From TrEMBL, chain A:
Keywords: Cytoplasmic vesicle, Golgi apparatus, Membrane, Protein transport, Transport. Residues 793-904 form the Beta-adaptin appendage C-terminal subdomain domain. Its main location: membrane. This is Beta-adaptin-like protein. One of its GO terms (biological process) is vesicle-mediated transport. It is found in: Cytoplasmic vesicle, Clathrin-coated vesicle membrane; Golgi apparatus, trans-Golgi network.
From TrEMBL, chain B:
GO terms for cellular component: AP-4 adaptor complex; clathrin adaptor complex; trans-Golgi network. This is MHD domain-containing protein. The keyword Protein transport applies. Gene3D superfamilies: 3.30.450.60, Mu homology domain, subdomain B. PANTHER family: AP COMPLEX SUBUNIT MU. It comes from Juglans regia (English walnut).
Length: 905, 451
């Protein structure tokens, strides 16, 4: 073949498509190949060549691999839009999958897996099954990946046809490429499956560790990442693993090195011998540092990871601070990360060197970098008490250069230094005041004003300084206004002379009358009241000693840090965010067949990810300065939208009673209402350690299910869901069950709003309420509750005497039912009436009958079913007779249960 | 696991686009380009290599001005993806001989074929040119190399003197030479990048050499190769204090802080005789990376003097002295020095008889730029610049200018003294004597003198 491919891009004069069509059907092989190339060229520049589908597919039957590949490329692109024609290719695919040439066999399976057309997928299974057991490793490794493709299209098919087993068999394959792909495919399937597919046992572990030595660099990464989920049984096993992984640190591929580091860090948690740990740290340091000699892109990733590692194990790189000094030609994103790590590694021993560096950086060109360098000096001052003075003198030197943004940044950090070391460095205030008029950034202004207010008594002209700001008060941004307000109050309290008094009038007026900022107004009013009622109290409040701050601005919350460390060498460790906050890949709709398949969290390690999910959501956001550099510039990585409940809603009771209910709801955010003790419905003994207390209650006219979960198991539980079986009132959950992640030993209370008439059961009314609860870690627990009818009595159940009598009369006598409660004593009529009224049983009238008192009440349950009630008793003596008349006499047993409970109090 | 791979030109045109999983929208290339181009409003700042936008994670590296980009929605290993992008560039270059927009477009069918073998369903299969040769059938169309810049550090060999076989590095690994038969040859390049920071008094604050031994083999039949390094080579800083500059240079062993190797390298006899043995795969690859902080003689000393001459004037004198042997010549030297923001004018004065030098004052970023075509070992060059300021300097000139930085290339010189003592190729026959090229080159990475 001669000439350049780019000639295929040139358009011909007249109708391109008909011309191509003609060429595709040429009798000459070379001409056909050229034509297909032209088609592909048109395709890549976005032209629609789908009309040539049949003609291109006709070229598929060829022994020429080059041509075949081109046709396949075309098919992958257009099969989706021409599903009916795609079937034309099936025969050739199936034939190719049995071709004597392994490349053609692999190519057929690889391509079929990429065509997401049902008709093709149907025909994929048999060839795939064969290819998984092919003699040629190239075919097997292609087939292994193809299983993951099929799972993505149709998970059920993969499970039903036993592909998972074949895939697991490939872990023991004698070809390392095949092993690596099998591991990658299994890991992906596991990621998207809710049942344990790929468990790493100690047996798999040792097999994979052996394969590690033979694999290509990329295979090593797949394997190391899969193994990183393995939890060693004890320190000895951990040491063993580490020993076999350590040689990977010498690899030239940075991904291998980082994945090995991750694995070692994880196993180190289990190793108790300090010698071994120290030795490992020593081994990890040089390769970590060497990552910084790679391309800047890799350096960036390495630095973000090192940032996490030194927070957990500062000793690893304690002596290597020099390698984090910024190079002149580092890209800005690398410089920023290096600064962070320099701050973390700064110590009394190296602070002089570090300060020298920061000082240099503070005079560089890039404004953001300069600002960060100045802040870094301040953070070192706060972190290292003994070096604070040296840091401050560097800051003062920088202020003297009078570069506007340097001065402002310095003032901001000096304010923090004052907070950290009160009454120590105030001598420098005079110098700061010199730069007053150059301040134009709100944060710097606010900081300076705070300093003036805080040290008003030491600044002779504090009132003049503040006054100069007051003129522009209405135009200032909110944070400056707030500081001005507070500083003026402080000044007034410290120097209650005429000047400040006038100032305070102006400020309070400005901050109350002439503002629409509620924060400012509220604060001003509080000051105003304080000052007018008790100036001494105002002093105590406003001038109270402030808690000393510490340098926690760069420390991640320890649970978050744990999670991020477990995610070293993943994107999570670059963003410093838990994976679930940015992973948006929609899970494939893997149908769960049996609910009882939910794994126990601690056993498999796979459900870890989901339990971490809830954990991550609950953990507090990272402090602003730990936001990655990328995040600081832009809102990305955007938090993922709250994941929708999994599409195929598992039906907890479905198998049981053939019920189709949609009211199953995932947990959302935790709420923890408190209330009276609830009856235990699911004892810990039958809930695998989980105890559930619950009761239906009525609050503000609505029915709630009040629940208390107590986690007596050894594992954290999350992902709680609840479902109610069909019941007389058709009760079902109205909203999500909100239970936070439950750590072992923790408990949570929640109120679940309920709706009625959702899934009504047939047959006679019953108070039985069957409930099913599950979570991510445990199988479904079932328990029974009793429906208290009193929870249904509505607020509008009061009847006028007239209508009471009328209704009573209108109902046939067969609707009158009565029951005796020989044990119940009514001692105080008032208390009883109150109690009944509280439950929406309304008193209507009372009459005497012999020595007995007869009371009439009315109540109503939803759908307007009234109850007319007659209670007969002798106050103070046991025995109450209750007679009711209602259009729904079948409810009588439930009613009597309710009235009994209420009368007993 | 990645979802898409694409290559964009500097203008943002799609040159190559391959979607492996169909999870990320088709317009991702445009979204990416717009984000990177306007990372900050002023377009000045570089986007980090990894970022997340609307749930899609974008990875990119820049190779010869092209963006190599991958996208994914899942929590993958970022170092794997970034490394992969570099490797894809390298494989394509192995095949095409030259990597640029033109060669990619001319060979798009081959590139797609390569991409299908390199990645399947987002998972890397192999990036070894050697392995790929058995699965890839398209022939590259090699474009005219003469005036084109090639990829990678080895390209520096093209700039220098005649002793480098200039066309070699732009030769495709798979294409046959116009003459019909390939020349048996192998290149071993020792490339070192120096980072050094001098204090204002000329004292070395930090210094580091990042070195790499690159190999590119055009030998048929993949014979085994043995590369012998310095006998006294040591690895690891155990037993000697960190950053010990007291030990005298020029004597003693070469001690590397750390090194790593390509997977084809056997280290069986490395400890005893410092010899690497390997069967080089086709294509360009890194045999060994190393890092050294041991003291070494810096190739250049920089001396800067600033003298105020009145409130609105100052004179800057920069002296550069080459500290290497006179048989060696450094080329394409550039000395940069940021000047105070309020500098309005600069006039220059060179030493008498200076040739091949350029001086410039860049108004936009207030920077002095002094270029020298070549510097012969042992020589010294001086530049005087008279500055005029638009406002008084308040005696802060030194704080507001500098540091002076330098870039250069020195062929056939390496500061670490690491050497390839011999390069042995397993003989196929008595007459088999392929060309062997062992080449050294040193470049400035961050070469900075504070003032």
């Amino acid at each position: 073949m001669s000439g350049h491919d780019s000639k295929y891009f040139s358009t011909t004069k007249k109708g391109e498509i008909p011309e191509l069509k003609e060429e595709l059907n040429s009798q000459y092989k070379d001409k056909r190949k050229d034509a297909v190339k032209k088609v592909i060229a048109a395709m890549t520049v976005g032209k629609d060549v789908s009309s040539l589908f049949t003609d291109v597919v006709n070229c598929m039957q060829t022994e020429n691999l080059e041509l075949k590949k081109l046709v396949y490329l075309y098919l992958i692109n257009y099969a989706k839009s021409q599903p009916d024609l795609a079937i034309l290719a099936v025969n050739t695919f199936v034939k190719d999958s049995q071709d004597p040439n392994p490349l053609i066999r692999a190519l057929a399976v690889r391509t079929m897996g990429c065509i997401r057309v049902d008709k093709i997928t149907e025909y994929l299974c048999d060839p795939l099954q064969r290819c998984l057991k092919d003699d040629d490793p190239y075919v097997r490794k292609t087939a292994a990946i193809c299983v993951a493709k099929l799972y993505d299209i149709n998970a059920e098919l993969v499970e039903d046809r036993g592909f998972l087993e074949s895939l697991k068999d490939l872990i023991s394959d004698n070809n390392p490429m095949v092993v690596a792909n099998a591991v990658a495919a299994l890991a992906e399937i596991q990621e998207n499956s809710n049942s344990p597919v790929f468990e790493i046992t100690s047996h798999t572990l040792s097999k994979l560790l052996t394969a590690l030595n033979e694999c290509t660099e990329w295979g090593q990464v797949f394997i190391l990442d899969a193994l990183s989920r393995y939890k060693a049984a004890d320190a000895r096993e951990a040491e063993n693993i580490v020993e076999r992984v350590t040689p990977r640190l010498q690899h030239a591929n940075c991904a291998v090195v980082l994945s090995a580091v991750k694995m070692i860090l994880q196993q180190m948690e289990l190793i108790s011998s300090t010698d071994v740990v120290r030795n490992l740290c020593k081994k990890m340091a040089p390769p970590l540092v060497t990552l910084l000699s790679a391309e800047p892109e890799i350096q960036y990733v390495a630095l973000r990871n090192i940032n996490l590692i030194v927070q957990r194990r500062p000793t690893i790189l304690a002596h290597e601070i020099k390698v984090f000094f910024c190079k002149y030609n580092d890209p800005i994103y690398v410089k920023m990360e290096k600064l962070e790590i320099m701050i973390k590694l700064a110590s009394d021993r190296n602070i002089d060197q570090v300060l020298l560096e920061f000082k240099e950086y503070a005079t560089e060109v890039d404004v953001d970098f300069v600002r960060k360098a100045v802040r870094a000096i301040g953070r070192c001052a706060i972190k290292l008490e003994r070096a604070a003075e040296r840091c401050i003198s560097v800051l003062l030197e920088l202020i003297k250069i009078k570069v506007n943004y340097v001065v402002q940044e310095a003032i901001i950090v000096i304010k923090d230094i004052f907070r950290r070391y009160p009454n120590t460095y105030e001598s420098i205030i005079a110098t700061l005041c010199e730069s007053l008029d150059t301040l134009d950034e709100p944060e710097a202004k606010a900081s300076m004003i705070w300093i003036i207010g805080e040290y008003a008594e030491r600044i002779d002209n504090a009132d003049e300084l503040l006054e100069s700001f007051l003129e522009s008060f209405p135009e200032e941004p909110a944070q400056v206004q707030l500081q001005l307000l507070t500083a003026t109050v402080k000044l007034f309290l410290k120097k209650p002379t005429e000047g400040p008094q006038q100032m305070i009038q102006v400020v309070l007026n400005n901050a109350t009358v002439e503002t629409d900022n509620p924060d400012l107004r509220d604060r001003a009013y509080i000051y105003w009241r304080l000052l007018s009622t008790d100036p001494e109290a105002a002093k105590d409040v406003v001038l109270a000693e402030k808690p000393v701050i510490s340098d926690d601005s760069n420390q991640l919350d320890s649970t978050l840090l744990d999670e991020l460390l477990a995610n070293i060498a993943t994107l999570s460790s670059v963003y410093h965010k838990p994976p679930e906050t940015f992973v948006t890949r929609v899970k494939t709709t893997a149908q769960r067949t049996e609910d009882d398949d939910y794994p126990e969290g601690s056993e498999t390690g796979y459900s870890e990810s989901s339990s971490h999910a809830a954990d991550g959501v609950a953990s507090p956001p990272t402090s602003s300065s730990s936001v990655p550099y990328s995040g600081a510039r832009q809102p990305a990585p955007a938090p993922a939208p709250a994941p929708a409940p999994p599409a195929p809603v598992p039906d907890l009771l479905g198998d049981l009673i053939g019920l189709d209910n949609n009211a199953i709801v995932p947990i959302d955010q935790p709420v923890a209402p408190s209330g009276p003790p609830l009856p235990v419905l699911l004892p810990a003994s039958s809930g695998q350690g989980l105890q559930i207390c619950a009761q239906l209650t009525r609050q503000d006219g609505q029915i709630f299910y009040s629940l208390l979960f107590e986690n007596g198991s050894q594992i954290p539980l999350d992902g709680f869901m609840i479902q109610f079986n069909k019941n007389t009132f058709g009760l079902a959950a109205a909203g999500p069950l909100q239970v936070p992640l439950l750590q072992p030993g923790a408990s949570a209370r929640t109120l679940l709003p309920m709706v009625m008439f959702q899934n009504m059961s047939q047959g006679p009314p019953s108070s039985l309420l069957q409930v099913a609860v599950k979570n991510n870690q445990q199988p479904v627990s079932y328990f029974n509750d009793k429906i208290p009818l009193q929870a249904f009595f509505t607020e509008d159940g009061r009847m006028e005497r007239g209508s009471f009598l009328e209704t009573w009369r209108s109902l046939p006598d067969s609707n009158e039912i009565s029951k005796d409660f020989p044990d119940i004593v009514v001692n105080s009529m008032e208390a009883t009436l109150d109690r009944l009224a509280a439950s929406n049983i309304f008193f209507i009238a009372k009459r005497k009958h012999a020595n007995q008192d007869v009371f009439y009440f009315s109540a109503k349950i939803p759908r307007g079913v009234p109850f007319l009630i007659e209670l007969t008793t002798v106050i103070g003596t046991p025995g109450v007779k209750c007679a009711i008349k209602t259009p729904g006499p079948e409810m009588a047993p439930l009613f009597f249960e309710a009235i009994e409970t209420l009368l007993k109090g | 696991m990645i979802s898409q791979f694409f290559v964009l030109s500097q203008r943002g045109d799609n040159i190559v686009f391959r979607d492996y999983r169909g999870e990320v929208q088709k317009g991702s290339a445009e979204i990416f380009f717009r984000k990177v181009k306007f990372w900050k409003e002023d377009g000045q700042e570089e986007a980090p290599p990894v970022f997340n936008l609307d749930g899609v994670n974008y990875f990119h590296v820049k190779v010869v001005g092209l963006f190599f980009v991958a996208t994914t929605r899942v929590n993958v290993s970022p170092s794997l993806v970034l490394e992969l992008l570099q490797r894809i560039a390298r494989v394509i270059k192995d095949y095409l001989g030259i990597l640029n927009e033109d060669s990619l477009r001319k060979n798009f069918v081959l590139v797609y074929e390569l991409l299908d073998e390199v990645i399947d369903f987002g998972y890397v299969q192999t990036t070894s040119t050697e392995m790929l040769k058995s699965y890839v059938f398209n022939e590259p169309i090699v474009i005219d190399a003469a005036r084109l810049q090639s990829l990678g550090p080895a390209s520096i060999f093209m700039q220098g003197g005649k002793r480098m076989p200039g066309t070699a590095v732009t030769k495709s690994v798979v294409a046959t030479e116009p003459g019909g038969r390939t020349r048996e040859e192998i290149f071993v390049d020792i490339i070192e990048k120096i980072s050094i920071t001098f204090s204002s008094s000329g004292y070395i604050l930090t210094s580091e050499i990042d070195g790499t031994i690159q190999m590119k083999s055009y030998l048929t039949g993949n014979p085994e190769i043995r590369v012998a390094l310095n006998d006294d080579l040591g690895i690891g800083k155990d037993g000697r204090p960190t950053y010990d500059y007291r030990s005298s240079s020029g004597s003693g062993a070469v001690i590397l802080d750390d090194c790593n190797f390509h997977e084809s390298v056997h280290l069986d006899s490395f400890d005893t005789d410092k010899t690497l043995s390997l069967v080089p795969p086709d294509g360009e690859f890194t045999v060994m990376n190393y890092r050294m902080t041991q003291e070494f003689t810096p190739p250049f000393r920089i001396n800067t003097l600033i003298e105020e001459a009145g409130a609105l004037k100052a004179e800057v004198i920069i002296k550069v002295r080459a500290e290497f042997s006179s048989s060696i010549t450094a080329n394409t030297i550039m000395v940069l020095m940021p000047l105070p923001k309020y500098t309005s004018r600069a006039s220059f004065e060179l030493e008498p008889g200076a040739v091949g030098q350029t001086m410039d004052f860049k108004e936009a970023n207030k920077r002095l730029e002094w270029g020298l075509k070549k510097i012969v070992g042992g020589s010294e060059h001086t530049l005087r610049a008279k500055l005029t300021f638009s406002q008084e300097s308040h005696g802060n000139i030194t704080k507001e200018s500098g540091p002076v930085s330098m870039t250069f290339t020195i062929p056939m010189y390496n500061a670490s003294r690491l050497q390839v003592k011999y390069l042995q190729i397993a003989k196929k026959s008595g007459t088999y004597n392929p060309y062997r090229w062992v080449r050294y080159v040193t470049q400035a990475n961050s070469y900075v003198a504070r003032i």
